[in-house]
Amino acid sequence: MGLRLVTWNVNSLRLRIDLVGRIVAEMAPDILCLQEIKVDDPLFPLEACRELGFEHVAYHGMKSYNGVAVLSRRPIRAVRTPSWCGKDDRRHLIAELDDGLQVHCLYVPAGGDIPDPDINPKFAHKLDFLRQVTEWMQAEIRPEDKVILAGDFNVAPLVNDVWSHKQLLSVVSHTPIEVEALTALQNSVPFVDAVRHFVPESEKLFTWWSYRSPDWTRNDRGRRLDHIWVTPALKDSLRATLVAREARAWPQPSDHVPVMVDFDL
């Protein structure tokens, strides 16, 4: 049986619920992981999500910031919402499906603008967050478990995950210390980068373009911040991937675009 998973940093679910509908119409996901939903749980647009065909919805949100959700056509039998670094900032949701598949929707802190944990608390929090999640994954997940980890990790780890490796080495999201932290998370199980499983590391690949760019298509100064990883148990089930770059040109877009992976599950 095929399964299509899409992850997208929606940057306000209620503002872009129509674009979620467009993703459903054009990409037909079975599971949709959303980050930065920016809506408190009592105001979550549950009925709108169900009208899009997702009978099973799990969400963990807050007003104006952060928040994650998993929309599924397959039954969800259990939900967990871990908190990290002593903060209840709604960045991690685990949906366990009725077949035992675990889907983790993760939103890693951006880290502010200064890549120095000694003078930038936001950057220190990002590194602490990644360390704690890594320790948890190492203790809780085995290679034979069926686990998908998807979301906005806010790190572009590879040379060709950014428009200029040299110019971004000191820019938050591509600094060596962040890359090291994200690599440790990937190695914790270890996870397989499902997108790079299909797209060679020699190819440029981006999922985010800044709102500050006057013409993102001409400059193409992107970064690959959004990822889908799987445990080794799922590697042989991978079938295809797609980064929906055209979504960055939709009306009132997010600065991130949807990322898709197809499985034979």
From TrEMBL:
Stretches assigned to the Endonuclease/exonuclease/phosphatase domain: 6-256
A Pfam match: Exo_endo_phos
Site note Transition state stabilizer, residues: 154
Residues annotated as catalytic: 107, 152, 256
Cofactor(s) for this UniProt protein: Mg(2+); Mn(2+)
Record-annotated site: Important for catalytic activity: 226
Entry's family note: Belongs to the DNA repair enzymes AP/ExoA family.
Protein name: Exodeoxyribonuclease-3
